[in-house]
């Protein structure tokens, strides 16, 4: 089959604008699937050849000759099990999703890669330092909270809907989100870009003095991501970021048949000692890459043309079609 026989599709959310533009830049027909009243941006920016409005994302099962590019909203709306059962062409390895979504399993994955991770507290009674409480799933930091003791934890956890969560040591440092792409066609890892998240209301609290914060009642920190900021790391840190990315891919090949391929992100913290802690992994494109639709400083070094992560995905699919290797990148 030829490239013109395929359509690249994404749900109308998260990083769809970037994915669809990248696909069009590579010569693909594009499709965006939106819920009602969510289609206006895709009609405005004209990155989709077809805008399909649906009542439910379950209608994805009706797509034919279409390659779906996953992002966090797909996982969030449908859930891991539903995505695993979708009967359509999917870029990436669906088998890895369960290891990403389950925070216990994702720590096992990162431990196998021998990455430095924050301490986990199995019981609230063991809390002896500041911790951040994270809920399972791709929720963009929704409902995360800081606790400083068992008493503090129990007071705050009760305000949330009961669901699986992780009590993780709070590492003080600079949060850095490293964006990678691993090619299953040439077995090479690329650093695509870096970003820092802009979160509400924890970033807003930084504008209020400690004295005023103390005077405000019922003021709580939260970590809902509302945007992303560009970042370039010190060049001396690049060798270590390449190393931890390569070890992550190698470890994935030991836990799941085929391992991890395509875009992924390691969510890290750099301490004042220069140590890099890895506290989470996203096994697909992340919204921080939306900063670099025309490429990042790193892709400018690797390519002689604008190369976003979305376009890099489309380029991989294009090469696979031309070389009859689609089976290596679709699952």
From TrEMBL:
<dbReference type="GO" id="GO:0005524">
    <property type="term" value="F:ATP binding"/>
</dbReference>
<dbReference type="InterPro" id="IPR023656">
    <property type="entry name" value="IMP_biosynth_PurP"/>
</dbReference>
<keyword id="KW-0460">Magnesium</keyword>
<keyword id="KW-0658">Purine biosynthesis</keyword>
<keyword id="KW-0479">Metal-binding</keyword>
<keyword id="KW-0067">ATP-binding</keyword>
<keyword id="KW-0464">Manganese</keyword>
<feature type="domain" description="ATP-grasp">
    <location>
        <begin position="94"/>
        <end position="322"/>
    </location>
</feature>
<protein>
    <submittedName>
        <fullName>5-formaminoimidazole-4-carboxamide-1-(Beta)-D-ribofuranosyl 5'-monophosphate synthetase</fullName>
    </submittedName>
</protein>
<keyword id="KW-0547">Nucleotide-binding</keyword>
<dbReference type="InterPro" id="IPR013815">
    <property type="entry name" value="ATP_grasp_subdomain_1"/>
</dbReference>
<dbReference type="Pfam" id="PF06973">
    <property type="entry name" value="DUF1297"/>
</dbReference>
<dbReference type="GO" id="GO:0016879">
    <property type="term" value="F:ligase activity, forming carbon-nitrogen bonds"/>
</dbReference>
<dbReference type="GO" id="GO:0000287">
    <property type="term" value="F:magnesium ion binding"/>
</dbReference>
<keyword id="KW-0436">Ligase</keyword>
<dbReference type="Pfam" id="PF06849">
    <property type="entry name" value="DUF1246"/>
</dbReference>
<dbReference type="GO" id="GO:0006188">
    <property type="term" value="P:IMP biosynthetic process"/>
</dbReference>
<dbReference type="InterPro" id="IPR016185">
    <property type="entry name" value="PreATP-grasp_dom_sf"/>
</dbReference>
<dbReference type="InterPro" id="IPR009720">
    <property type="entry name" value="IMP_biosynth_PurP_C"/>
</dbReference>
<dbReference type="InterPro" id="IPR011761">
    <property type="entry name" value="ATP-grasp"/>
</dbReference>
<dbReference type="InterPro" id="IPR010672">
    <property type="entry name" value="IMP_biosynth_PurP_N"/>
</dbReference>
């Amino acid at each position: 089959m030829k490239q013109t026989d395929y359509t690249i599709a994404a749900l109308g959310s998260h990083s769809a604008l970037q994915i669809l533009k990248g696909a069009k830049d590579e010569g693909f027909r594009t499709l965006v699937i939106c819920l009602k009243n969510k289609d206006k941006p895709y009609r405005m920016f004209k990155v989709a050849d077809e805008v399909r409005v649906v009542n439910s994302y379950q209608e994805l099962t009706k797509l034919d000759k279409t390659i779906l590019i996953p992002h966090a909203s797909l996982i969030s709306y449908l859930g891991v099990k539903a995505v695993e059962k979708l009967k359509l062409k999917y870029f990436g390895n669906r088998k890895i999703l369960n290891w990403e979504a389950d925070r216990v399993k994702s720590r096992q994955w990162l431990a196998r890669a021998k990455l430095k991770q924050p301490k986990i507290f199995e019981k609230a009674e063991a809390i002896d330092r500041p911790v951040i409480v994270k809920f399972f799933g791709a929720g963009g930091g929704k409902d995360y909270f800081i606790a400083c003791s068992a008493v503090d934890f129990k007071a705050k956890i009760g305000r949330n809907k009961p669901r699986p969560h992780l009590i993780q040591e709070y590492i003080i440092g600079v949060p850095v989100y490293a964006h990678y792409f691993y090619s299953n066609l040439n077995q090479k890892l690329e650093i695509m870009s870096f970003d820092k998240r802009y979160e509400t209301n924890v970033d807003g609290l930084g504008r209020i003095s400690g004295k005023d914060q103390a005077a405000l009642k019922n003021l709580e920190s939260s970590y809902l991501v509302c945007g992303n900021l560009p970042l370039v790391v010190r060049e001396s840190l690049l060798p270590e970021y390449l190393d931890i990315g390569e070890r992550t891919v190698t470890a994935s090949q030991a836990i799941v048949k085929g391992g991890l391929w395509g875009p992924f992100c390691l969510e890290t913290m750099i301490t004042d000692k220069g140590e890099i802690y890895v506290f989470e992994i996203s096994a697909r494109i992340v919204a921080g890459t939306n900063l670099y639709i025309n490429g990042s400083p790193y892709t400018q070094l690797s390519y002689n043309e604008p190369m976003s992560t979305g376009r890099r995905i489309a380029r991989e699919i294009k090469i696979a079609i031309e070389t009859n290797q689609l089976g290596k990148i679709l699952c």
